[in-house]
Write a structure and sequence with these properties.
By secondary structure, the chain is an alpha+beta fold. The protein is built from 13 helices and 20 strands. It has helices spanning about 1-10, 50-65, 100-105, 195-205, 250-265, 275-280, 300-305, 350-370, 385-390, 445-455, 470, 510-520, 555-575; strands at about 35-40, 70-80, 110-115, 145-150, 160-165, 170-175, 215, 225, 240, 290, 315-320, 335-345, 375-380, 400-410, 420-430, 440-445, 490-500, 525-535, 540-550, 580. Residues about 245-285 and about 385-400 have low confidence and may be disordered.
Amino acid sequence: AARNIRRLRERGAEVLFSVDCTKLKDYFLPSDRLFSCVYFNFPHCGRKAGVVKNRELLAQFFSSCAEVLAEEGEVHVALCSGQGGTPADRPRREWHNSWQIVAVAAGARFILSDVRPFNAESIHGYKCTGYRSQDKSFSVDGALNHIFTRSTPLLHLKPMVCQMELGSKRVSFQVPQMLVDKINRGFLERNSEHPVRTVKKQLTAVLSQTFPVQSIDCSLSLLHKGDIGGVCHSNVFWIIPKPEQNASTEQMAHGLANAVLFFHTDFCKNADENGCMKVQEGNLISEQYFLRPSLLPYVQTLIERATFLPETLYVICGPVFRKCPISPHSLPVFHEALFVGAVDRGMESGFMQMLVDAIRSGIYLLHQTASGCKLTITLQEATNFERTELNGFAASESQITKIQHTVCVETDALGSCEKGWCVGTVGMACGGAKSGGLVVVFASLNLDLLAMLICGIADWRMLWTSDERFLSQFLGGELRLFKSFSLYPPSYVHDVSFWVPESEQFDEVAFHTIARQVSRETVVSIQLIDSFQHSETARKSLCYRLTYQSCDKALSCQDAAEMQLLFRKEIQRYLHVTLR
């Protein structure tokens, strides 16, 4: 030790003693508190301290580090084999018997960004000592160095009001709270380096080798009005516009009565954060607006344009919005790429096969460039739900969709995908009376899922992160395998049990939508673990298990507990359940 101290001082280092690691800021002037790195090798409370006391030590240490660490600084903590409780430990202890290092670090807004073996042999003169507070060594075989960095804060989103042109009318509305951070992100803009745009750009380039291609760059409204086509009502984000300023009190009062029913039936969350919104929205309640769930309704408008050219492939891209149950591959908002062409009757099958082959070749090429992992693309007949959805734009003028298939992709880049991911649909339909008898062939692709498969991104939420460490891996619009900057994030499990209202059908999609909103997309799983019906009253009780976990931010045990409490209040408020 004396030799090491002398070496440090000879090199200009300042050496301090008796520093309390839980109060670091007390030992340094404010100008000296921006450390680029803080190391703590094998922390321990001393003697036979149990895992609980050592967790408390680490929690206080991380909180102290947050006060003296530079914004892009690192905290290195070396632990003996098994202590950390992460999958990197070999062998891995049970969570309750570990130091739970990722969870205690999350309490101070740190995420685990790297784990490396602690190689004592590579450190000249290193010797461990302190076993049970004695001058004895301890085993460092299998020890790991855990490297933590600062997390971006959990988002506390403010209500957002948007104005959009819909025909000749300007419509003002409040954005559903869970979509506030996903509106107008500009992933597809010309100067964007987001992998979603790169996938669209490079896939379109591959298709242009087979077809004449035209990209439709005109601004398409996110807002629709009227018929939703074949999409289920409960899967649509309904929007109630703000009233015109000269709306009378009687009009707003009349609308308020309808608004209560509308919120209850279709679960429009616009009134969620603003108690008076129902009054403000009232007079326009009869006009049913919604965020577009698909780009397919634009097909008919496209083929009726005077400039529309048969046998040319038109490309339309943009974000679409759908309420859906929580799962790793179910996205409430994603970027759809719609490829549309029209040919004379009798040529449609050949045109569709050429389109499918070109899409398959493009996906293979992009995937090979980024990862080189095994990839399988298959076409499967669409399910009834997908058929209905595809028929949504063909609801008039005898447009009958003839063939629909889903595009399924399997890859080993993300581990096992037993059934593959459905990344799109293809189909054909009669173009209608105004199209001159042409047959329309189209392919709809989910660019977000394609980007995930090609770049090995396991969680769709990562595509929407505000952390710069995501986009920095795709500079220049280059597709490559993604390396997560938040390893082994902690998860927290909470159960909720309630009686379902006797007079109403339980809306599970609304249940999941509330969970998405109150948790700020940190609920990764909802499982029905029990269903019970009372033998005398016939009342039905449901019990769900919610798992909270963030893919890019520090989520503490307290954060999850507070979200769960809010979730319980919200399901009472909107679904009228009785908590047990």
